[in-house]
Design goal:
Length: 573
């Protein structure tokens, strides 16, 4: 096909009735290097020429029009202790009215005792320099019984209030010095540790909003907005909807992302220490899976080098075609980066972005300490150990769209077909719409979250595999891959049936784990590409939309059923 362009538009693939925008391939470009452990990027509202980079040691640098200023915006290195990797200058937030009042806020661990400090500063007459003598603490120092689990994130919500993430104070199982026996800090309403706080910076001290959920409860501190977090290292607010996404660092098994809708009245309990992700820990303080607990929307295990979630942002910029409303997050240890959408109570379009966002050119992202946004909503990634900051951009790399071993001459970022042979006719560029993961899997009897994934491209007439794989299943059990032509999301056997009837069932074999059938090492894999090209199903033709989900036996489940999320794709030619 001549003159075909890769455009930012809608494609036929739909989930639960909503169209999916075709996504431009992504890339990253390094925008700053030589930094000292950068761990956050942000910008004042409306300031499109600068981004501010927080260094753990106590400096805030300015990246202005592409170059780092010679002098830091703020240097408070003498005020900070960073003897532990989780201490230091940890957070920065600009007042929503920064353009008129010049206020900004920092979160750091104090030299000497490591106490958490939430302090307001003011910019000087020079917009590139803060007034270092303008410090005004908003809260009394919050004692930290250990050097780790300090939280550190501060963000303004859509309501104009300042939210503060506080870790549980350190030590395993929330048992640090000074904890309340049998409860821990995160479930103790008299402690600010293990909580999310909410402050009204326009109030006089104590800066407590009258609408905070516990202001009339004598057993709970007025500043508390939410209970039960272990170490909410990075949380953020969707700048369009106001929804809150919380990346809460787990202990030895699970990392989690939690969600709080805009307009929520507060008072959520996210379950630590009796829950870690979807897992029950067996610890006291709350009741696992109790109705009053708010479970995460996604968790993942400590496999493949994973160990510590880095919460990110919902993308609301303008340059990444098709990614509006997509949440990005990562793991600090493995440097894996993922994205998904959360709509209607379901996680959809879950995708591993690690390889796509690798910078190339001899560069690498090795320890994702934070994501960040500029004033326009574009996305940044901090590499703590590399001392670098990267910006997420549309890819301009040529790709092999039709899998014939030859790169197609198409500038993917602009959608422009190139005339590489100078014959006056643009070259072909017909790229398949990538598959997407959608719907919500069902936690199985071993508290694992079965998940679906894919590799390859669903191509008619292709010779390369298109594998659909399930993991985190009960091992050594019989299973089925079923597929249909329309998506779904209705309740089914304690989970969700993600494919609308009628469906076609295909037997698969579980290949993982020991013979006991009591762990989550089971995996199922099916080469759907071979099915497309085998000719046994005449409905599998170019342009056909397909939705697939795994079902498997789980004898310990009340329905004896295990279900993954689902994958949707369009067969390309």
């Amino acid at each position: 096909m001549r003159n075909s362009l890769v455009l930012c538009g809608l494609v036929a693939l739909t989930t639960a009735g909503s169209a999916l925008a075709q996504k431009v391939p992504l890339d990253t470009v390094r925008v700053a290097s030589g930094l000292q452990q950068p761990l956050f990027v942000t910008a004042p509202p409306g300031d499109t020429s600068r981004v501010f980079i927080v260094e753990r040691g106590g400096d805030i640098e300015i990246l202005k029009n592409g170059s780092l200023n010679a002098t830091p915006f703020l240097d408070i290195t003498s005020l900070i202790i960073q003897s532990n990797q989780e201490q230091g200058l940890l957070g920065l937030a600009f007042d929503p009215n920064y353009a008129t009042n010049g206020f900004f806020y920092v979160n750091y661990t104090r030299a000497g005792d490591g106490a958490t400090m939430i302090v307001r500063y003011t910019v000087s007459a020079n917009p590139d320099l803060a007034n270092a003598g303008s410090a005004t603490p908003l809260l009394s120092p919050i004692a930290q019984p250990q050097a780790n689990h300090n939280g550190g994130c501060i963000q303004f919500g859509a309501d104009g209030y300042l939210y503060v993430g506080m870790g549980d104070g350190g030590n395993a199982n929330d048992t640090g010095a000074g904890h309340t026996a049998g409860i821990g800090n995160a479930q103790d309403g008299t402690k600010l540790l293990g909580k999310i706080l909410r402050l009204d910076v326009n109030n006089p001290p104590t800066y407590v909003p009258a609408s905070n959920p516990y202001v009339s409860d004598p057993n709970v501190a007025d500043e508390i907005w939410a209970f039960g977090v272990r170490n909410p290292w990075r949380f953020s607010f969707d700048r369009t909807t106001g929804d809150m996404y919380i990346g809460d660092v787990g202990q030895g098994a699970r990392e989690e992302v939690s969600f709080e809708p805009a307009g929520f009245p507060g008072g959520a309990n996210y379950g630590w220490r009796c829950m870690e992700g979807f897992n029950c820990t067996g610890l006291s303080g709350c009741t696992c899976n109790a109705p009053n607990l708010t479970l995460p929307i996604r968790d993942y295990g400590h496999t493949g080098g994973n160990c510590s979630v880095t919460g990110g942002y919902v993308y609301r910029g303008s340059t990444l075609c098709g990614f509006q409303g997509t949440y990005f997050y990562a793991d600090y240890c493995s440097a894996k980066i993922w994205s998904f959408k959360y709509t209607g109570g379901s996680v959809t379009e879950f995708t591993d972005r690690t390889a796509e966002l690798a910078p190339g050119g001899g560069l690498s992202i090795t320890s994702v300490s934070s994501f960040g946004e500029d004033a326009a909503g574009e996305l940044y990634i901090c590499d703590l150990s590399g001392g670098e900051v990267f910006k997420v951009i549309p890819s301009t790399t040529l790709v092999d769209c039709n899998l014939n071993g030859i790169q197609d001459a198409c500038d993917i970022s602009s959608g422009t077909s190139l005339d590489t042979n100078a014959d006056g006719i643009p070259d072909e560029c017909q790229c398949p719409t990538p598959p997407v993961v959608y719907c919500t899997g069902k936690v199985n009897s071993q508290f694992c979250s079965p998940a679906i994934a894919f590799t390859g491209v669903p191509k008619f007439g292709g010779t390369l595999p298109f594998d659909i794989t399930a993991s985190q299943m009960i091992n050594n059990k019989f299973g089925l891959l079923f597929y249909g032509s329309q998506p779904n999301g209705v309740s089914f056997q304690g989970g969700h049936l993600c494919v609308k009837l009628p469906i076609t069932r295909t037997s698969v074999l579980n290949s993982g784990g020991s013979s006991s059938g009591t762990d989550c090492t089971g995996t199922y894999s099916y080469d759907f590409g071979a099915l497309i090209n085998g000719g046994s199903d005449p409905a599998l033709i170019p342009g056909a939309s397909v939705y697939a989900q795994y079902w498997a036996r789980d004898p310990q489940d009340s329905f004896t059923t295990s279900l993954t999320d689902a994958v949707g794709f369009t067969i390309c030619n």
